[in-house]
Specification:
Elements lengths: L5 H26 L5 H19 L1 H5 L1 H18 L7 H4 L3 H9 L6 H20 L5 H45 L1
Helix pairs in contact: 1-2, 1-7, 1-8, 6-7, 7-8
Length: 180
């Protein structure tokens, strides 16, 4: 079985990104009452953006959709700064950086930030690796696919654990009500 098939990787990407959105939303609930209307509106927009990324990851990470814009950012850096050709690629935001910085304000914990960034890195590695058409691309594709599947499974477990704990907590509350 080839784990790099789009049929198995894209659902894992969606599950992982939706799981990270769910975890972000749960963290957001703790602060909702103290937020201003503008902050709530901004948080809602970020949640919508996160869902859009999850539903169509190719639009945000694939080479076909992002390569030209990335090249334009590199060209702009070349024109505005005295940067050696080796360093300009690192200064220009790549697709994962753009997605990450768009959702960064909503990621409440350091763990969630690292988890989201690493997952986006795996997606970008897989998307660009599968379109390289050389040995290095095959390696990136396979490693990216493995990371995506592993990280997605881990995120789903966290979401399920959190949902289970909420269910148990709610059941305990109901039981206490019946004992009164």
């Amino acid at each position: 079985m080839n784990i790099t098939k789009e049929q198995s990787v894209y659902p894992a990407i969606k599950d992982g990104l939706m799981g990270l959105k769910y975890l972000s939303k749960i963290k957001l609930i703790k602060y909702w009452d103290t937020m201003t209307k503008e902050e709530r509106w901004k948080a809602g927009r970020i949640l919508v953006y996160m869902e859009q990324v999850a539903n169509n990851p190719a639009l945000y990470f694939s080479r076909a959709a992002t390569q030209n814009a990335w090249a334009e950012r590199i060209k702009a850096i070349e024109q505005t700064a005295d940067v050696k050709s080796d360093g300009r690629d690192n200064l220009a935001q790549d697709p994962k950086d753009i997605v990450f910085y768009n959702v960064f304000p909503l990621l409440a914990s350091q763990k969630l930030k690292v988890q989201y960034y690493n997952f986006c890195s795996s997606i970008l590695d897989w998307e660009y690796g599968r379109t390289m058409n050389n040995e290095i691309g095959i390696i990136y594709e396979m490693q990216g696919a493995r990371k995506i599947l592993r990280e997605s499974k881990k995120i789903k477990q966290e979401v399920n654990t959190f949902k289970f704990h909420n269910l148990v907590r709610n059941l305990k509350k109901k039981c206490k009500q019946f004992h009164r």
